[in-house]
Write a structure and sequence with these properties.
The chain has six helices and no strands. By secondary structure, the chain is mainly alpha-helical. α1 runs antiparallel to α2 and α4 packs across α6.
Length: about 100
C-alpha cells in the first residue's frame, strides 16, 4: 500500500498538464501537517482528485497557496470530500446495477 505522500506525488506527475492540481498535490506530498489532516479521512476520501476538488469547491483559488489555506479551511474541505466520495459511490453502484440488468445478470 502506498503512503498518502506517495499517492499525491504520483498524482502530481500524472496531472502535470493541470498545473494547479499538480503543484498542490506536490505541495501536500511534502507537508506533514497537510498529510496528517488528509489521513483523518476515510481511505477512499483521501484520493487527490477528491481532496483537491473539495479544496477548489470550498474556495481555494486557481493559483492559491494550498498549505495554509487547507489547514484553515479543513472542516469545509473534509465535509465536501466526504460528500463527493459518497456521491461517487452511489453513482458507481447505480452503474453496476444497470450494467448487471443490461447483461441479464
Amino acid at each position: 500500500m502506498s503512503s498518502t505522500a506517495e499517492v499525491y506525488r504520483r498524482f502530481a506527475r500524472d496531472q502535470a498538464h493541470r498545473s494547479s492540481f499538480a503543484v498542490w498535490a506536490e505541495t501536500i506530498a511534502d507537508d506533514s501537517d497537510c498529510l496528517a489532516l488528509i489521513d483523518t479521512l476515510a481511505e477512499a476520501e483521501r484520493e487527490p482528485a477528491i481532496v483537491l476538488w473539495a479544496a477548489r469547491a470550498a474556495g481555494l483559488r486557481e493559483n492559491g497557496e494550498i498549505r495554509a489555506w487547507i489547514e484553515g479551511e479543513w472542516d469545509a474541505v473534509a465535509e465536501l470530500a466526504h460528500e463527493r466520495c459518497a456521491a461517487l459511490t452511489v453513482a458507481r453502484r447505480a452503474a453496476l446495477a444497470t450494467a448487471g440488468q443490461l447483461s441479464g445478470a
